Amino acid sequence: MQSVIQHTGQKSSDTLFLHVYAANSGITKQMLYHDDGLTYSYEKGAYSSINIRYEAQSKALTFDDIINGYRPHFTTIAIMMHGFDDMSSTRINGKITSISKQRVSFMKALSNFDPLGSQANEGTIPVQVIHIPYPTSKTSINW
Predict the structure, then answer these.
(1) How far apart, in whole angstroms, are the C-alpha atoms of residue 57 and residue 24?
(2) What is the pTM of this model?
(3) How far is the C-alpha of 128 from the C-alpha of 125, rounded, in Å?
(4) 10 Å Cβ neighbour count for 63?
(5) Can you tell me the distance from the alpha carbon of 28 to that of 105, in angstroms, rounded to the nearest whole number?
(6) Which domains does the chain have, with CATH numbers?
(7) How far apart (Å, rounded) are the C-alpha atoms in residues 105 and 126?
(8) Residue 123's Cα: distance from chain center in Å?
(9) Distances (CA, A) of 109 to 1, 39, 42, 119
(10) For position 113, what pLDDT does the model report?
């Protein structure tokens, strides 16, 4: 996810939010894809992709090497860890890094006239957040 924008000409913040949900077992694989979102430049190679792998039993999240090298404007990825046991730190490429805790909401009042009103802002859930620089090479996170 990215921060809210009103139109494609507007830039989002420099942080990309990746939501990871706890599982007891299994391996999940996803691909993170970026292009400029405006032109057909991707047809000429102006795009990038990064394969992401979450391994539940080994408690690992891996970002593989970036493919193609297009660099989006994001400088940071905030990994929002949902439903995981309480963690005080994690290892990013073997280096111990702290984890922050915050509450997030997927449902906010759309306007003053939202039928749910302020109740829409009450549905927050706790998450643990790992901040990493936007990866350009293999990045391994273990907890």
Answers:
(1) 7
(2) 0.82
(3) 10
(4) 22
(5) 24
(6) 15-142 (2.60.40.1180)
(7) 9
(8) 20
(9) 19, 33, 36, 8
(10) 60
